[in-house]
Amino acid sequence: MDIGNIDIKKIKQGEQVAFKTLVDLYSSSLFRYAIGFVRTKEIAEEVVSDVFLDVWLSREKLSEVRNIKAWLFTLTHNKAISYCRKTKGNNDTISIEDVIDYQIGYILPPDYQIISKEEIIKINKIIAMLPPKCKMVFTLAKIEQLPYKEIAEILNISVKTINIHIAKALEIISKALKKESGYR
Amino acid sequence: MMKQSKFMLFASLFEKKPIKGKEQSVDSSLEEEDEYRKLEYFWNECQPSSTEDLNIWAKTLQKIEKEGSAVEERKPTKYNIHFKSSVWIRLASLAAVVLIILVITLNIEGSQRDDLRKIAGTFNMNTDASEEPDDVTLIISEEKKIELKNDAKVSYANDNNVINVDQQQVGVSDAKVEYNQIIVPKGKRSQVILADKSRIWINSGTKVIYPCSFKGKYREIFVEGEAYLEVAKDAQRPFIVNTNGFEVQVLGTSFNVSAYRGSALSSIVLVEGSVEVKDGNKQRVTMIPNEMVSIGEVNGVAQLKGKKTVNAEEYISWIDGVLMMNGETLKDVLVKIGRYYGKTMICDTGVEQNVLYGKLFLNNQCEMVMKALESITLIKFEMRGDSIFVNGK
Question: Residues B158-165: what's their mean pLDDT?
């Protein structure tokens, strides 16, 4: 686990320094995930700080949480969706899946030796067109590097489904790369 | 179908599992190997462009404070507890002594920030060491200067404008009052408790300028020299420590700032909480506890030099009269001792790079401290008036 230097006991006792270590460790990951739903920096910050406020207020129960990282992502996921729901009005006939879209930040390679500039532009376009759920899975698996079992818990779907989502994304990306070399 | 299963295999290979399972390999043609290599590279090496500065901690803290004041008593830090009780003792034993009328009026707009550095200039900060007073001096106005004994505690009450020194009332601040200054010469130390209950330990050879009460959006003070601060929490009004070259902004925290005039390096060591340091080029750096940020001067402009992890306790031990030596050179240690006792140190270059370890207790006579030093490294010293000569054995 990568929460090595976080002292849950101290957080439970109300020590803000220990709590800040936790906040600092996960802030940018949760922010990246939240902004995919809410789009603007300020709102994403609101969502994530709301999550941490909840964590602080329920710190007594912190040691009961099996996997803090996955739990934080779940809280962020739920908060972000309820925010979107609120702003999109209450049209009961549309399910959540239809209302919520998800956007992935622009992905860049460290250099263009293996993947060219044109290829990365294409890949980003294709990722943007994936179904929302697939994009969420993709973000959590690739960008946040969570194990599939944890992603399954956060999104409330099976590990098998996650595998299918990722395989699908990989296939489409791979096709795009092939076409690239074929056409030019 | 063949394709689907191939990508399913890739999907499972790319998973970041806590414990790596057995190595799997892909049986495939050369073309497919290239395909896999690209995908793997994309998966492992390519990331979204990094996010800009986030305000999540500050926002969370604000929400907690808001919630906290409504739901539960905010837990004071260990220092706060100690501090609160002593203030009450002091308030309980008030004795009216003198009434001082303060004449310095520098108009402040409630919302605007003062230029503390300019104000520091108006206080005629003497750069010449010979002008330095012999005693700790509290300057309330051009006319009113109070000499204090070593280790005196000055405190400002928020509600009744009373200024206390060692539990004795020495004055009442006027509503028009702006800034006071305290000068702590070499060989002396002092403490100030500000109107917002923030506490400053002031080391030898240091000047601090501060308002008698805090108005407006910011709480600002000026420090030249070394001070350790425990800033009272107030998320609505950031606390800013100005020095000649840089500033440190705080919400509520404990840290040590060392910014001596003429010293090549200034530093900030954070003990608790969070601070942001801004140098002369408006470069900013945020610190976490047990970090030290160094600042040097380049063409007369303070510039951030670097950040490293330290044991913060070592840097604040001077408030307890202890000098911790953790691999420092004799030269550095002598500078500190000289400042502490108000002595001039002259050290032989042959021994000034000797490395020292251990604790020196500074409450004793300077001579005792020098004897202790003699016992841990190969030197001998000779005291001549205010100068101490240190040579190799």
Answer: 79
B361 and chain A in contact, CB less than 8 A: no
Q: Are strands B153-156 and B190-193 parallel, antiparallel or unpaired?
A: parallel
Whether B11 and A56 lie within 8 Å, measured CB to CB: no
User: Which ipTM value was assigned to this complex?
Assistant: 0.84
Measured N-to-C along each axis, helices A159-183 and B2-13 cross at an angle, to the nearest 10 degrees, of 110
Which one-letter amino acid corresponds to residue B274? S
Q: Compare B303 and B52 and report the one with higher pLDDT.
A: B303
Residues of chain A with C-beta less than 8 angstroms from the C-beta of B288? 20-21, 24
User: How many residues does this entry show for chain B?
Assistant: 393
- How many residues are there in chain A? 184
Does residue A52 or residue B313 have the better pLDDT? A52
Mean pLDDT of B347-362: 86
Q: Is B79 on the interface with A (CB under 8 A)?
A: no
Question: Chain A residue closest to B63 (CA)?
Answer: A53
Read off the pLDDT of residues B174-187 as tens digits, 9 standing for 90 and up. Answer: 656 578 899 998 88
B167 closest CA partner among B180, B157, B155: B155
Mean pLDDT, residues A123-141: 89
B206-211/B47-48 β-pairing: unpaired
Answer whether B334's CB lies under 8 Å from B345's CB: yes
CB-based contacts of A156: which residues, under 8 Å, 6+ apart?
none
Of B263 and B179, which is predicted with more confidence? B179
Identify which of B48, B57, B272 has the shortest CB distance to residue A105: B48
Using a CB-CB distance cutoff of 8 angstroms, which residues of chain A are in contact with residue B55? 45
Distance between CA B238 and CA B218 in Å, rounded?
Answer: 5
Is B73 part of the contact surface with chain A (CB cutoff 8 Å)?
no
Is there a contact between B46 and A110 if contact means CB atoms under 8 Å apart? yes
Residue B78 has pLDDT above 80, yes or no: no
The span from the CA of B350 to the CA of B71, in Å, is: 63
SS3 annotation, chain A: CCCCCCCHHHHHCCCHHHHHHHHHHHHHHHHHHHHHHHCCHHHHHHHHHHHHHHHHHCHHHHHHCCCHHHHHHHHHHHHHHHHHHHHCCCCCCCCHHHHCCCCCCCEECCCCCCCCHHHHHHHHHHHHCCCHHHHHHHHHHHHCCCCHHHHHHHHCCCHHHHHHHHHHHHHHHHHHHHHHHHHC
CA distance B268 to chain A (A): 18
Closest-CA residue of B relative to A1 is B18
CA nearest neighbour of A19 among B75, B196, B198: B75
B353 within 8 A of B328, measured Cβ to Cβ: no
